[in-house]
Design a protein that fits this description.
This protein is α/β, with parallel strands linked by helices and 396 residues long. It contains 17 helices and 14 strands. It is globular and about 60 Å long.
């Protein structure tokens, strides 16, 4: 191929892709899903300029297979089951399931097919678009700026006095694969944090880096897992409960952090009853006001007579180090807290970043939607379905 491959290993993906993938393979392998790419901000140049390179990269991606060493690593994770590893041994992306094209100055990417064959495209596409885009900027200058800014973050965290003053430790993980400056830069950032901040740095969502750098792979579920249940034949009002119940049955105590903002925190908590609150280890926030969200979570646990100190609140929405420290300061003596930091770790190099996503828009021919606690992050293709979903869950 003419350009250097962005993705060279199928392990270069977020852990929650594998955990959702396994759950859907076991529970709903027949699901047909549709994913669409979207850029939410204005880039420095039209992303359609990347179209030829992107198609070339997709051709390359569809030649990759999991190696035996990669499969052995996955098999060593106690929640990954042998039959899923056998499935991955046979797995190969099919080029006919993904298409990239231009409409005017707008780049479109769509993946349509059996969910167990198209779900893993998402992170690879986002990482590829990002890296192709940022290859057009001055690399050495960006990396030098990135190292300076990374050191400033390290210095700020080293100045934090957390023990024995605070009840719960400060724990930070890397969630920055999908919007990274490059694969090489993410690797350097994660290795630096591992070496420089062992007291705070917990791991990475990137399975390849977790393996290579001897770190804990971090992740449970994303929006697409719960959204899929909007199209799986259960009563729409019950889709969250059905998704959570299947997760409990699949993992039986492992991977116990539930995502709360597919239809908003209030609607989630209405379904997160004593049964689920006891079975799940905690909750993840990905939109809305983090302080307000955390207060609602703690109040919900207290209402159910569950000690919030026994539960974990994970924050992962547009975090930087000052925001992490402010949230930690607010909750560190009231519940276990964790932070998944993305773009601000892996793409803080002095260039304006892309706000790109590739989200599920339908399952089995039925529209699905996310009603975010941050209005700009609500995602839907069918406005009529969104209005119906809001009505069902009483969301304004």
């Amino acid at each position: 191929m003419r350009s250097v491959p962005v993705i060279t290993s199928l392990l270069d993906n977020d852990l929650y892709k594998f955990t959702m993938w396994q759950a859907m393979l076991h529970r709903h392998p027949q699901t047909v899903a549709e994913y669409e790419f979207l850029c939410r901000n204005t880039p420095a140049f039209p992303l359609v300029d990347l179209l030829d390179e992107l198609n070339e990269q997709l051709d390359h991606l569809c030649t990759l297979r999991f190696t035996e060493h990669e499969l052995a690593y996955l098999a060593g994770l106690r929640f990954i089951k042998p039959d899923f590893v056998d499935f991955l041994r046979l797995f190969q992306f099919q080029r006919r399931f993904i298409r990239a094209w231009a409409e005017g100055n707008v780049l479109h990417v769509s993946a349509v097919g059996p969910q167990v064959h198209v779900t893993a495209f998402e992170i690879h596409v986002l990482a590829t678009v990002n890296e192709l885009y940022f290859r057009r900027f001055e690399q050495e200058k960006a990396m030098d700026t990135g190292r300076q800014r990374l050191q400033a973050k390290i210095d700020l965290l080293r100045a934090v006095d957390v023990a024995p003053r605070r009840t719960h430790p400060l724990e930070i993980s890397d969630f920055g694969l999908r919007r990274r400056f490059s694969g090489a830069w993410q690797r350097e950032v994660v290795a630096t944090l591992r070496d420089e901040l062992p007291e705070f740095f917990r791991g990475t969502s990137n399975v390849l880096l977790a393996r290579d750098l001897d770190l804990v792979p971090i992740g449970t579920m994303a929006h697409e897992y719960l959204q899929a249940y909007q199209g799986l034949g259960v009563r729409l009002r019950d889709f969250q409960r059905a998704a959570l119940e299947d997760w409990v049955q699949e993992y039986r105590g492992d991977l116990g952090i539930a995502l709360t903002d597919v239809v908003g925190m209030d609607a989630f908590l209405a379904d997160f009853d004593l049964y689920f609150a006891k079975l799940f280890d905690g909750l993840r926030q990905d939109s809305g006001d983090p302080i307000a969200w955390g207060e609602k979570a703690i109040a919900h646990y207290e209402k159910l007579r569950i000690d919030p100190h026994s539960k974990r609140l994970v924050f992962s929405d547009a975090l930087d180090v000052p925001k992490v420290l402010a949230i930690y300061d607010h909750f560190a003596d009231r519940a276990q807290v964790g932070f998944g930091v993305g773009t601000n770790l892996t793409n803080d190099v002095g260039c304006d970043t892309l706000n790109i996503v590739m989200k599920m828009v339908s399952a089995n021919g039925q529209p699905v939607a996310k009603i975010s606690d941050t209005p700009g992050k609500t995602l839907v293709k069918d406005g009529t379905f969104l209005a119906y979903l809001k009505q069902v869950f009483g969301v304004r």
